[in-house]
Amino acid sequence: MCCDGDCRPLGFLLGLPFALLSLIISIVGIAVWIVGLLLSCICPCCLCVTVLVELALELIKAPIHVMSWFTSQIPC
Q1: Quick check: 61 and 27 in contact, CB under 8 A?
Q2: Strand, helix or coil at 26?
Q3: For the chain, which end, N or C, has fewer CB atoms within 10 Å of the first or last residue's CB respectively?
Q4: Into how many domains does the chain fold?
Q5: Contact 33, 60 (CB under 8 A)
Q6: Distance between CA atoms of 29 and 35, rounded to whole angstroms?
Q7: Is the alpha carbon torsion for 52, 31, 58, 44 positive or negative?
């Protein structure tokens, strides 16, 4: 039997602790992003700062990726 919508509450509930953990990681990512932006304003020629900012952006998006992965793994 297939679901009419894309609602998977069991996947959401199972993924919630991992999403909370990734939310903490995303807060760290925000701090790294702010520091990276400040460093890139001071020295724009430094390539490693740009990579650091890109990594921080992926850390900020972590809760969304975790929840979408968990909800896609659980069938209706």
Answers
A1: no
A2: helix
A3: N
A4: 1
A5: yes
A6: 10
A7: negative
